[in-house]
Amino acid sequence: MAKASPTENRNDGHLKRTPLDKFNRELGAKMAAFAGFELPLSFEGVIVEHVATRTSAGLFDISHMGIVDLLPAKGHDLGIAAERLEKISPISITDLRLERMRYGLLTNDEGGVVDDLIISRHDDRLRLVLNAAQTEEDLDYIQQRTSNLAKVEVRGDLAQLALQGPKSSEVLSQFSDKIDDLNFMQRHEFQIDGIDCDVSRSGYTGEDGFELIVPATSVERLADKLLQDERVVPCGLGARDSLRLEAGLCLYGHELTARTTPIEAGLAWTIQQRRRVDAAFAGAQIILRQLSSGPTRTRVGISALTRRPIRDGAELKSTEDVAVGTVTSGGFGPTCERPVAMGYVQTEFADAGTSLIADVRGKEVPCEVTTLPFVPHRYQRN
C-alpha cells in the first residue's frame, strides 16, 4: 500500500484531527469524538445549521473521510483494477465513464455490507471515498482481493469539504460559471480562488450540493473564502446527521453493517442489471436470492406519534406486543418538525402506515411506518 505524505491525521493512540481542526475551533466549534476523529459537533447550534443547509448553504468539514486512489499495477490497465474491485462489489464499475461517480457497496461472502462508498472515474485511476471508521478494514479487504493487479494509494495529502444547500451552486458559480453545468454524481477539476479542486455534485444531506477534494495545505484558505459569503454557514456533525436522517440515507454502523445485506437495506437499486446477470461478486448467491424472493426484514422510516424522540437501539413491537424490529437511527427532524427514525422490521410489518410501539427506556412510544425519505431529495439532474 503506497501512502502519500501525512497530514495532521497522525494516529498516535489519541483522536485524530483534520487539517481544519484549528480553524474550526477558532470559529467556536463544539467538538465531539466520531470515527476516531475529534470533529465539530456544531457551531451556532444543530437546528440553526440544519435549517441553513435546507434554505441556503452549509459548509461541512468532511476531511475525516478516507480518500483512496486505486491505480493499475505495472503492466496492467485500469480496466483490470476495476474488474478486480467488482469481485467485492455488486455495482458496475468497469463501465463507469470519465468524470462520473457512483454510490456503491463493498460486500462480504455472506452478502453483508463491509462499507458503502463513492467511486469516481479519473483519467488514470478510480478514486474511492470511504467511511472514516471503516477505512483501514476496507484497505485490507481491497488489497487482499485485488492481489497484484491494482495499487492502492492512501491520499493523506488531501482534505474534503461539503458545501450543501439550494444556494451552494450560486456560491460556487462566482468562481466558475461551469460548475453549475455539473449534474448530480458528476465531477470535474476546477480552480477556486487559485486552489485546485476536484469538485463533484454530490452530498449526504438530500439537498443539491457539492463536495470538494483539495490539497490539505489549501483547505483552510478555501473554507475561509467560502465562509466570507454571507449565504454560507459553518456546520457540524449534528446537522449532518439530522439532514441525512430526514433524507433517509444510511449510516454505516447503523443502517449498514457486515450482517446487513443491500436488499434488506433497500439498496437493490445500486446493483445494475449486468451484475445481477454475471453474479460475480462477494455474497452474490445470498444477495440475488433475496432480490428474487425478498428479504425477511427490511429498512423502513418510522414516525413517532408523540414528541418523544425514538433513539438508536429501541426495540420495535407490534400492537400485539410482539417484537418485530429495532431502531437503527433516530432523532428530531427540524424540517419535519417531529421525531423521525429508521430501523429494520420484519417484512410483513414494513407497509407504510403500519402501527408499531417503540420501547424507549421502558416507555412505550406509539409510532408508524413511514415511506422514506421524510424530506424529498433535491438533487440537480438536468
Distance between the termini: 39 Å
The CATH homologous superfamily of the domain at 2-61 and 157-246 corresponds to: Probable tRNA modification gtpase trme, domain 1
Instruction: Write down the secondary-structure element order.
Output: EHEEHEEHEEEHEEHEEEHEHHHEEEEEE
Portion of residues in beta strands equals 25-35%
Please state the second-level CATH architecture of the domain at 2-61 and 157-246.
2-Layer Sandwich
- Judged by helices, strands and strand pairing, the structural class is alpha+beta
* Strands, total number: 20
- Summed over residues and divided by their number, the pLDDT gives a mean of 95
Low-pLDDT residue spans: 1-12
- Characterize the biggest β-sheet: 6 strands, mixed
Return the CATH topology of the domain at 2-61 and 157-246: Gyrase A, domain 2
Strand order of the largest sheet: 1-9-5-8-7-6
Helix content: 10-25%
Counted by DSSP, the helix tally is 9
How much is the radius of gyration in Å? 21 Å
